[in-house]
Structure prediction request, 860 residues.
Amino acid sequence: MSATASIAAPLASSETPEAMIARLGRAGRLAQRTLAGLDAPAKAAALHAAAAALRRAEPEILAANARDVAAGQANGLTAALLDRLRLDAGRLAGIAAAVDQVADLPDPVGAVIDANALPSGLAVSRVRVPIGLIGIVYESRPNVTADAAALCLRSGNAVLLRGGSEAVHSNRAIHAALVEGIVAAGVPAEAVQLLPTQDRAAVGAMLTAAGLIDMIVPRGGKSLVARVQADARVPVLAHLDGINHTYIHAAADPEMAVAIAHNAKLRRTGICGSMETLLLDAAFPGSLSVVARLLDDGCELRGDARAQALDPRIRPATAEDWDTEYLDAILSVAVVDGLDAALAHIAAHSSAHTDAIVTADPAVAERFLDEVDSAIVMVNASTQFADGGEFGLGAEIGIATGRLHARGPVALEGLTTYKWLVRGTGQVRS
Amino acid sequence: MSATASIAAPLASSETPEAMIARLGRAGRLAQRTLAGLDAPAKAAALHAAAAALRRAEPEILAANARDVAAGQANGLTAALLDRLRLDAGRLAGIAAAVDQVADLPDPVGAVIDANALPSGLAVSRVRVPIGLIGIVYESRPNVTADAAALCLRSGNAVLLRGGSEAVHSNRAIHAALVEGIVAAGVPAEAVQLLPTQDRAAVGAMLTAAGLIDMIVPRGGKSLVARVQADARVPVLAHLDGINHTYIHAAADPEMAVAIAHNAKLRRTGICGSMETLLLDAAFPGSLSVVARLLDDGCELRGDARAQALDPRIRPATAEDWDTEYLDAILSVAVVDGLDAALAHIAAHSSAHTDAIVTADPAVAERFLDEVDSAIVMVNASTQFADGGEFGLGAEIGIATGRLHARGPVALEGLTTYKWLVRGTGQVRS
Prediction:
């Protein structure tokens, strides 16, 4: 099997990017209608077949990936980017296992949201349906090709994938295997399409293909997401990063505060759920221990004047620090006077991803939950739990920080919409 | 009370449209935070006070409306537009009563969507919260000023209103009364703001105020909605019109078919839920009566060759007719061979608003409900039931034909989003 065998039609040299997207979009929409007619076991079988095909295609996929890695080295990609790009047998097995896992998640399609019998005698209900054709624009991690395709297919959506140029051979090989698997299980190949070109104009055509593509999900760094949001006419489910706060209230358990602050910042510093700002209540007696534990483990702390007074190792924070997502072992620290001051700081600086309080006072906890207007608000837990898997969703396409359609961890339900069903017995409206 | 008294600050001549929207947007967001802290009875009291203020301001509002109507006559507005614009004591009483009615609807804010206890010991739940600041861009009907403000306020949202120039004095007078009422009940005036200018550039600035305005709802004709969709960077909840089908299946009850087709087309021809295309199954024996009843009542029918053969009064349809929303006593009629042909016609031509089947065969009905991918799918009922009030929602801000966030009739729930609440006992992530 050639790595590009599944790209149905090569890009005709005379075809404009808009014409190509229109062609792929129509093919995807047609395939989605078939997909919408499949029941949950049929879709699960297709995904299990895709996972098996990924395992069988290990030699081709790893060879394709080696080409990408070699090109990346030649082009001077950073070690971090090369690590994101690189596949080995273990990582590929993980990608296939994730596809199997998505196959076994409950199918959201057909679920009844609510139902109502009306005075007119009409029975009205809302049921979940797929969104339609979803465009995914992503960067260097080739696992997104399989993850996003699996989540879309499980929820009855067709998908149009556009990965980063650094991973082009890896993505084509993974895509070819996925298509081989789903076709063998009776799903049209066009349910999972990969753009046959890395031409940037094709991305622009995707973003403006309103009516043809129903939703765009950008997955990558801030610059990618910002570009997609600026250019898109198609609705965007945006996965931005997190400037997340943990507020240690006066009545926090000191040991819990130390453990949660340490975990929220240092468990993994590069994920969007990591804490970026620590707010210490002036009346909390354990602040010295909280900052000492972080400093002792190599975290750089940047504080306001009162925070700096806690430990000589704390450097001064600038105004920008309160609005900075470090994604590193760096943390801004402020001392605040009570809950209201903490809420005001969070309202002013949070990116509305995940904010947490540590307190033993239930009334304070409930006020924090009520008044913090972020996608995820936590009490007495590490912000690093902000994850679809940890929330029991089985998988996630990302964390949405926008306010519409879906918010916080977005999984299969977020890839559906609904329709209203009305069952009558001949009613006409007076 | 002057009709413009409530416009807090006049437009400084040196202020750019962007600066003005930023100023109003910040004020609206601040007011929304206060609004979000009010409980359901407090919001209801504010709306009842607003309704009472509308009644008290009847002389001012009707005088302002008379100015608009006179200007409209001088500017040659059509009789239909003048009728939409014109207020009298009865219509104003209806507007105030609608505000009272929205005040008494259940408050969606705070409702728990779902809750889950996880193996980590975390308790995760999703609760409804307001969206934030909503922009409404609308045309000549001044009742939208009160309706939209009431729906937004009931659901805890601040609103920024921009009405049509034809209704500028009416809108200012209605807005002034609303603000007088809510302020007396303790809600900040900036929770309901009306743009102090009709400058079109200000609309452009609203549409691009991402991060400041959370959602735009255009209410008006297709050209307004299309312009908003083309220019907006802020998410748009679009209320388009309907190319709605009624398919009369072979097993339809003939009398029911006549009654439903007649009602779906002719009860009110100008609403978005009216039928625009009638699909008659070739095997349905009652087609003659269905078309005769419509023709006898003055409806123009445009048919394909087989439909024309039913009655000499049926004119030939052109290709465009199948994609035309008449909003008039005109109907396109096609004869189709069975359910699959009807589904294919609907998939090709429906605007995904509301489509209906008339059939006595439950299996056929369920297939139609399952396979038609429109916001509202009906069995044995008139498409004119497509309405938030008829669906038991109490009121609606419109019918959404987009696929994301909210679909079909959109009422208070569609004006909310959710946040995730996580209650822990000191959990850190391993």
